[in-house]
């Protein structure tokens, strides 16, 4: 029998990292989170079940997230959407279940979408740059031996060592993108060995001549005397929002939830590193105060400052001797902006981080509708 356990998700917490996914070495069990849209703590049920409902037999919209790592913790605040089930899966299974129809939406790395989606037309990228999970899929070779003076993909392809009898040996977990890249770039004598986990030791152990793997800072490559080469980057990757084209068109509610998720993502990314700064300032009129604020280069805000009267009681009636100024300031200009506010008479300066900045309709939504023919 499935077991359940109540969990509370606080709507004010941006990251929730203490959830775990029960698993077995032989039969991984997915964990289902059913989440209500709420700005206060709301109950969510965790149920150990199999993904056995067919798309036509369910009403809920399903979002797949990687079962561990930063990509899961950085997207848990998206759970505050009604009628949305969040399923923690292995990244490659998110893509596979999108193709099979068991999931409607997913957030994974672009490298995973390209590797396991393999150009499937049903997969559609809704948002291509969620600004985390940055890495690149790259070809790396040793710094020593016959590769010491090889610094480009063209030079690697022209090495006389590679023949049908002695091909370039590449270790990789990307068995679709790796061979595709080599073929497209004229490396005809190549053989691939599949591997998961740390590949960097493979050349030193004599298992492979080169590797194709994900690279972030490049530190691990350098520690293993490996180098990237010019023209050897296969794919620049980061977290993306991907959807099933069929679900978006055919399943009720999927398009609406996708719209809401896209709006939240765009607004959250737009607010990154931005602060609301509020201050009081004495002045004769809102226009006079606005002129003083706009005279300072760091105080213009998004479209300009908001200036409103601050009323106090004087001689038995309300009077406005002070005005409240509200502006939006990027993090790198925060201290300079506070100094400039003080210079023009600002006091009682309050600073708050921004979570969302909703602007005009995102172009990505219009592009999605166009891609769907809607």
UniProtKB/TrEMBL annotation:
Pathway of action: Amino-acid biosynthesis; L-histidine biosynthesis; L-histidine from 5-phospho-alpha-D-ribose 1-diphosphate: step 1/9
CDD domains: PBP2_HisGL3
Documented EC number(s): 2.4.2.17
Annotated InterPro entries: ATP_PRibTrfase_cat, ATP_PRibTrfase_CS, ATP_PRibTrfase_HisG, HisG_C, N-reg_PII-like_a/b, N-reg_PII/ATP_PRibTrfase_C
Xref: Gene3D superfamilies: 3.30.70.120, Periplasmic binding protein-like II
Reactions accelerated catalytically: 1-(5-phospho-beta-D-ribosyl)-ATP + diphosphate = 5-phospho-alpha-D-ribose 1-diphosphate + ATP
Keyword 4Fe-4S: no
Histidine biosynthesis HisG C-terminal domain sequence ranges: 272-355
Keywords, comma-separated and alphabetical: Amino-acid biosynthesis, Glycosyltransferase, Histidine biosynthesis, Transferase
Domain of life: Eukaryota
A Pfam family per the record: HisG
Location of the ATP phosphoribosyltransferase catalytic domain: 90-265
Keyword Transferase listed: yes
NCBIfam families noted in UniProt: hisG, HisG_C-term
Full protein name: ATP phosphoribosyltransferase
Species lineage: Eukaryota, Viridiplantae, Streptophyta, Embryophyta, Tracheophyta
């Amino acid at each position: 029998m499935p077991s359940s356990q109540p969990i509370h998700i606080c709507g004010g917490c941006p990251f929730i990292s203490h959830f775990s996914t029960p698993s077995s070495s032989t039969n991984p069990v997915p964990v289902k989170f059913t989440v209500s849209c709420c700005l206060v703590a709301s109950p969510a049920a965790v149920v150990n079940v199999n993904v056995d409902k067919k798309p036509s037999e369910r009403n809920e919209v399903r979002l797949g997230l990687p079962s561990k790592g930063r990509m899961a913790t950085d997207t848990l605040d998206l759970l505050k959407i009604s009628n949305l089930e969040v399923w923690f899966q292995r990244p490659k299974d998110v893509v596979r279940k999108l193709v099979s129809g068991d999931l409607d939406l997913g957030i994974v790395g672009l490298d995973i979408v390209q590797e396991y989606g393999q150009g499937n037309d049903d997969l559609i990228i809704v948002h291509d740059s969620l600004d985390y999970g940055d890495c690149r899929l790259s070809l790396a070779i040793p710094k020593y031996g016959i590769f010491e003076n090889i610094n480009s993909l063209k030079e690697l392809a022209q090495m006389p060592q590679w023949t049908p009898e002695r091909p370039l040996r590449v270790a990789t977990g990307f068995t679709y993108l790796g061979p595709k890249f080599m073929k497209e770039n004229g490396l005809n004598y190549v053989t691939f060995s599949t591997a998961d986990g740390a590949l960097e030791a493979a050349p030193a152990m004599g298992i492979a001549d080169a590797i194709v793997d994900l690279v972030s800072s490049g530190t691990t490559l350098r520690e293993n005397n490996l180098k990237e080469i010019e023209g050897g980057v296969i794919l620049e990757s980061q977290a993306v929002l991907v959807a099933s084209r069929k679900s978006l068109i055919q399943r009720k509610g999927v398009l609406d939830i996708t719209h809401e998720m896209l709006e939240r993502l765009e607004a959250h990314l737009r607010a990154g590193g931005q602060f609301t700064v509020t201050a009081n300032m004495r002045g004769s009129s809102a226009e006079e105060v606005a002129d003083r604020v706009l005279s300072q280069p760091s105080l213009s805000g998004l479209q300009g400052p908001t200036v409103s009267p601050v009323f106090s009681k004087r001689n038995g009636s309300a009077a406005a001797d002070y005005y409240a100024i509200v502006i939006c300031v990027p993090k790198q200009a925060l201290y300079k902006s506070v100094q400039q506010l003080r210079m023009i008479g600002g006091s009682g300066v309050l600073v708050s981080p921004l979570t969302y900045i909703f602007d005009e309709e995102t172009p990505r939504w219009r592009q999605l509708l166009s891609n769907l023919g809607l």
